[in-house]
Each structure stands twice: as structure tokens, then as C-alpha cells.
């Protein structure tokens, strides 16, 4: 037999491929990614703790914009799987089971299904206490019913990020957003020709009624474009923003590199702070290292564990500190063991490592907020198990605002210890939680047209924030980093707010930064004293907290 010539080989190969490719494409296209069923196997003896748990779905992230898809209404028999039927609606990129009670929930196994079979992708879940790796979320997806994932509070969850082809591909902008001397012709596209791309330029979120991209968009002045891709039987793509700054004064700005360490509440600003900084013409490089549910110690000891942005190696904080000039380092204490001593020690380790490469780095303590319906965490009420034991003067906060005031006392304790470390710059506070207090009062006073209720608008669940809440806290970060008001400078695209509402959010965010003496900006303008009081923490230091 004669060997095939190259030409003939290619002809045979392409002929065979022409039959195979449509079949493969048809199989991929026929796959369903719409959740229809969840199977749960609890650890024996803990079946009742599943009651009230919820199945949630989101297009945006593991903790943001979650929609309730189903609820656990029955207690399974011991040793039996519980099947939860989900009414099919549309594909969600992020799906999870979240606990509803504050009792121990122990999930031995969990599986997610569509009508065409078991869904696959990357699993995620909340962190467990140090030394408890034997009950981490991986145990709920290891195929071994004898192991289990154990979480103790209402914020615990385990879920699945569907594989990339379950979602419409993200739109790309060409040229990419940035600063340009001359006006630009912007093209939006993806690799998939079946995708429909819709866009907005007015700050609204692209939906099925937004204009379809069909020809280049002529950008002659500072503009932020928002785009989203839609594909039949797939989850919608993420909303992608691109900001264009036009003119000679917008180019060659120095880079500001920020590194954010924490958990899902640090992720509040992920994907938002970068966008609003870009829209203001800032050359910001945002990177975060986060582990859901983790405190500072677990983040330090985790090595490469958690989520990051950009290149994967940026999750290795030691390498980041050595290879990048970190201008701003953000650390988020979290109310899990062992408390002040741990936060002080491991936060100090982060700070000192960062200062080795850049002595001029500005470290920040990121002040979070209480859960909206439960004020029993160790920062709100104190705890004897903390090292050392810590209790605020008001050990039974009556409401969310009092709980927030207690958290600020805890943060000042930690900050005092960090400021005892040698370094060129003292630490500052990003007043995320105090800012939400001021925003709450403004909404409840009727000062923001169209918003009449704080928690349903600002919170996505008991502790994580909605689009609107994430936008606001990102504005507070912006004011701290760039030492200027965001009002009139930043986009409100993808915030879910009208332009009028966004303007008031920007004003309140700047008021927040000015009202916090340890933001480092309070002296820039007359300080806002309204609804604040001066008090002493346990170490005798004076600080201001919301009242």
C-alpha cells in the first residue's frame, strides 16, 4: 500500500473531521446547564440541621447577586440522600447550598444536576477553623460519604462554579479601555459568532432590551462602556466595563498597586473598585487574595490557597511582595478564632513582609460590618475564648448600628498593635462598616430618591452586599486610596443605581472618609462630626465610632 501524500492525508482528515465536528458541536450544544436537582447527603444524626437551607444561584459571583432557587422543606431519613427539585428557569454560573440555621450543618456529599446529567466545574465553600481541614468543604465533594463538611453558622455554604462553556463568553473591547490622546473607534466581540452582545453607555446594566452591538462605537470624550454577551441555553456573561479617557492629560499616569487580603467581604470590592478607578482615569492595579470565611491567620498560613486576580502567582503574597511595589496593603480581621492576638501577630507578619520590599507601603485595616439579623459574633459581643478575652463595654448590642460600633472598638484594638510595629507609615482604617451606617441613615431618612429600605437594597443576603452595596463600599475605598471625592469623577455603570442615586452614594462615601480620623483624609476638608462620638478603647486610646 502506498503511503498517503500530505495533500491526500489532509483531504481525508478534513473529510472525516467534517462529519465528526458537527456531531461534537451538537453534543455540546445539547448539554443543559440549567439546574434542576440537588442531591444532599447529611452526616448521620445531623439531618434536621438541613431544614431551611437554600439552593442559590448567581451570574455574578460566589457570594453576590444570589437568587433563591429552592429551599429545604423536609428532613431526610438517616442515611438517605435528600433530593431537592429546582424549577428550571435559566443557567446560573454559580450555584450553592447555604445553611439557614446557626446549628452545626454537616454535609457528607452534595451533587448538582441538570436534565442532561451531573454538573461539573470548580467547587467552593466557606473556610473552616484552623486545624479543621478534616471537615473542609472538599469533604462534601470527595465522593466519600464517610467524610463531611461541617460549618457552624448561617453564612456557611458549599457550591459549584460551572465550567466555562456553561456561560456565554465575556465580551472583549478593542482597543481595550484606557487613556488615549485621540478619539477611538471601539469594537466589541467574542470568539463565538452565535453570541449577541448588548451594551450601554449611560451607566445602566445591559439586558435583553439594551442596544445590540453591530458597528464600531465612536468615542470622542471620557466614556464608560458596559457590555454583556447573551447565548441561548447558557448563563449570561459577566458585565464587562471599559472606560476610555480621551486627551493629552490622561496618559502616562503612575501605577497605584493595591493588594487586598481577606475573605468574601474583601471580595465586596472585587470587580468594582477597579472599574470605578478606571472610569476616573486612575492607573489602578487591583489584586486580591481571599478565602471565603477566613481570617488573617488562615490567609497567612494558606500559602497559595484562595482566590486571586490576574496571574495565579499573585495569590502567593510572599512573591507579590518581592516582585511588585505594593502601594496599599489591605487586611480584613474576621470574627473567628483566635482573636486580637492572632489578628495582631499575623497582620503584623503581612505588614512587615510587605515593608521589606517597599518601606513606603500604606497598610490599611478594612472595617467590615455585622450580619443584618445576628449580632452575636465575637466582634459585636466579645468572647471569652478569644486570645486575650475581649469584650466591648456594651456586650448586648440592641441593633445593627450598636453592633457596628462594637466592631470599631475591636478594630482600634488591633490597629493599635499594628501601629507598634516599626515602619514609615502608621496604619489607617477603611471605614466600610461605618460608611454603611451613614448610608442606612440617609436611606431611612428618605434622602435618596427611589430607595426606601436599607437592608433589602444594600444586602444580598445576611452579610454579603448587593450591587448597590458593593458600589458604595468601593467608593469608600476609592476616597481612601486617592484622597479625593469620587463625586462626578467615577462611573455608576453596573451599580444598579440611577445617576441621581449614584451621585448621593458618592457624596455619602466621601462624607464617610472625612468622618473617620484614621482614614488619613479627614484633615483634607472640615471634618464631618454628625452622628459620631469620641470614646476610649480598652488600651486608653481615643477613637470615633458611629452612634
Describe the fold and architecture.
- Helix 10 packs across helix 11 (499-515).
- The protein has 547 residues and is an alpha+beta fold.
- The chain is globular.
- The chain has three domains: 37-166, Sandwich (Lipoxygenase-1), CATH 2.60.60; 172-248, Immunoglobulin-like (Sandwich); 253-546, Rossmann fold (3-Layer(aba) Sandwich).
- The model is unreliable at 1-29 and 524-547 (pLDDT under 50).
- The strands form six sheets. Strands 1, 4, 6, 7 and 9 form a five-stranded antiparallel β-sheet that branches.
- It has helices at residues 6-30, 273-279, 296-301, 317-323, 340-357, 378-381, 400-418, 432-444, 454-458, 467-482, 499-515; strands spanning 37-42, 54-58, 67-71, 82-85, 94-98, 105-114, 117-118, 121-125, 149-151, 157-162, 172-174, 178-180, 184-189, 196-200, 217-219, 223-230, 240-246, 256-262, 284-290, 328-331, 362-366, 428-430, 532-536, 542-546.
- It has eleven helices and 24 strands.
Amino acid at each position: 500500500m502506498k503511503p498517503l501524500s500530505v495533500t491526500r492525508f489532509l483531504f481525508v482528515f478534513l473529510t472525516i473531521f467534517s462529519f465528526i465536528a458537527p456531531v461534537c458541536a451538537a453534543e455540546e450544544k445539547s448539554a443543559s446547564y440549567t439546574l434542576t436537582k440537588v442531591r444532599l447527603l447529611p452526616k448521620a444524626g445531623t439531618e434536621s440541621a438541613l431544614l431551611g437551607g437554600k439552593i442559590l444561584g448567581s451570574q455574578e459571583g460566589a457570594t453576590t447577586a444570589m437568587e433563591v432557587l429552592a429551599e429545604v422543606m423536609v428532613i431526610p431519613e438517616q442515611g438517605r440522600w435528600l433530593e431537592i427539585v429546582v424549577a428550571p428557569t435559566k443557567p446560573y454560573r454559580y450555584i450553592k447550598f447555604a445553611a439557614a440555621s446557626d446549628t452545626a450543618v454537616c454535609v457528607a456529599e452534595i451533587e448538582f444536576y441538570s436534565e442532561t446529567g451531573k454538573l461539573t466545574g470548580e467547587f467552593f465553600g466557606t473556610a473552616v477553623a484552623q486545624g479543621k481541614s478534616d471537615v473542609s468543604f472538599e469533604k462534601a465533594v470527595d465522593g466519600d460519604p464517610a467524610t463531611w463538611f461541617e460549618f457552624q453558622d448561617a453564612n456557611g455554604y458549599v457550591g459549584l462554579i460551572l465550567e466555562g462553556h456553561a456561560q456565554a463568553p465575556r465580551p472583549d473591547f478593542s482597543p481595550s479601555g484606557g487613556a488615549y490622546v485621540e478619539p477611538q473607534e471601539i469594537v466589541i466581540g467574542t470568539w463565538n459568532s452565535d453570541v449577541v452582545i448588548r451594551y450601554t453607555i449611560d451607566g445602566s446594566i445591559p439586558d435583553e432590551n439594551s442596544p445590540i452591538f453591530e458597528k464600531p462605537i465612536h468615542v470622542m470624550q471620557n466614556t464608560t462602556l458596559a457590555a454583556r454577551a447573551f447565548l441561548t441555553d447558557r448563563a449570561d456573561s459577566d458585565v464587562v466595563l471599559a472606560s476610555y479617557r480621551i486627551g493629552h492629560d490622561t496618559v502616562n499616569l503612575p501605577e497605584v498597586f493595591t493588594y487586598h487580603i481577606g475573605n468574601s467581604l474583601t471580595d465586596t470590592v472585587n470587580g468594582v473598585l477597579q472599574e470605578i478607578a478606571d472610569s476616573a482615569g486612575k492607573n489602578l492595579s487591583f489584586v486580591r487574595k481571599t478565602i471565603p470565611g477566613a481570617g488573617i491567620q488562615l490567609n497567612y498560613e494558606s500559602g497559595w490557597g484562595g482566590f486571586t486576580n490576574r496571574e495565579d502567582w499573585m495569590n502567593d503574597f510572599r512573591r507579590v511582595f518581592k516582585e511588585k511595589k505594593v502601594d496599599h496593603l489591605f487586611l480584613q480581621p474576621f470574627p473567628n478564632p483566635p482573636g486580637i492576638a492572632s489578628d495582631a501577630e499575623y497582620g503584623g507578619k503581612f505588614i512587615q513582609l510587605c515593608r521589606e520590599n517597599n518601606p513606603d507601603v500604606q497598610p490599611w485595616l478594612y472595617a467590615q460590618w455585622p450580619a443584618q439579623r445576628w449580632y452575636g459574633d465575637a466582634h459585636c459581643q466579645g468572647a471569652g475564648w478569644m486570645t486575650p478575652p475581649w469584650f466591648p463595654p456594651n456586650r448586648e448590642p440592641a441593633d445593627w448600628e450598636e453592633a457596628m460600633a462594637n466592631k470599631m472598638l475591636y478594630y482600634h484594638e488591633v490597629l493599635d498593635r499594628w501601629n507598634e510595629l516599626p515602619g514609615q507609615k502608621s496604619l489607617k482604617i477603611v471605614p466600610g462598616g461605618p460608611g454603611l451606617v451613614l448610608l442606612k441613615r440617609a436611606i431611612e431618612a428618605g434622602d435618596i430618591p427611589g430607595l426606601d429600605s436599607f437592608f433589602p437594597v444594600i444586602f444580598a443576603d445576611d452579610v454579603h452586599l448587593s450591587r448597590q452595596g458593593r458600589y458604595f463600599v468601593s467608593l469608600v475605598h476609592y476616597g481612601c486610596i486617592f484622597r479625593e471625592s469620587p463625586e462626578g469623577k467615577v462611573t455608576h455603570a453596573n451599580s444598579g443605581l440611577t445617576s441621581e442615586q449614584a451621585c448621593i452614594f458618592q457624596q455619602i462615601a466621601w462624607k464617610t472618609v472625612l468622618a473617620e480620623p484614621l482614614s488619613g483624609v479627614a484633615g483634607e476638608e472640615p471634618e464631618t462630626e454628625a452622628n459620631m462620638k469620641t470614646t476610649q478603647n480598652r488600651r486608653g486610646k481615643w477613637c470615633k465610632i458611629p452612634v
